[in-house]
């Protein structure tokens, strides 16, 4: 059983929801990535999404764009990101790590070599924003052959055909984009999300995590009442970029702990089937 699948199974037995924070590898500098990953775990992260810096992050809002820019100024590459995951694995064999990014770095690396090296480093899943499922069967099969979960996006505009493709090719969990826009947007429609999650879960047959627009404990708790996981990214990046030098891990841990505590204090009313 993969680390991701085992994590969701354990949480379901406990009546809890997954908390999945996102940070960009190399932001604010490469030396801070490992301390930040430790802080995320200490703050209650069940799975870590680690962003691969890219020069044209088209699905990301200005906050995560700035994080990529800071990392790229330090020369952080996909190979460097894999080395960071390998270092994290030396001290943490339990917490799943999902790489999130764009196709260009993977294409430049080479798909077969990337899958092999990602598995060796201890990566558990990969979410490539601009790999639509109808065009990447080879990519998905290559990852699965290496023991990695190919994770796909669904959105309010996704068609029935897209649901079928994602159910066929994806594994691990589904990342449901809760709004039409970029990361960091604030117009989260919680009632709309609540109405959509049951049908998504039924159609794809795997856990559903919700991201985009979740910025505080109140919105995280409401999402956790209907979804299997809560994904928080831009709000964490804001903590990082506003922190005095050396203080980002502690501030991130404090923020994430408040989200975890609020989620755990709320009774789960809609357990996955």
Describe this structure in words.
By secondary structure, the chain is of the alpha/beta class. It has one domain (3-264): TIM Barrel (Alpha-Beta Barrel), CATH 3.20.20. It has helices spanning 3-14, 33-42, 62-73, 78-89, 103-109, 111-121, 137-145, 160-169, 190-204, 217-224, 234-242, 248-264; strands at 18-24, 48-51, 97-101, 125-128, 149-150, 153-154, 174-177, 208-211, 229-232. It has a nine-stranded parallel sheet. It is globular, with a radius of gyration of 17 Å. It starts with a helix and ends in a 9-residue tail after the last helix. Mean pLDDT is 91; it is low at 181-185 and 269-273.
List the helices and strands and how they pair.
Layout: H1 3-14, E1 18-24, H2 33-42, E2 48-51, H3 62-73, H4 78-89, E3 97-101, H5 103-109, H6 111-121, E4 125-128, H7 137-145, E5 149-150, E6 153-154, H8 160-169, E7 174-177, H9 190-204, E8 208-211, H10 217-224, E9 229-232, H11 234-242, H12 248-264
Parallel strand pairs: 1-2, 1-9, 2-3, 3-4, 4-5, 6-7, 7-8, 8-9
Helix pairs in contact: 2-4, 2-12, 4-6, 10-12, 11-12
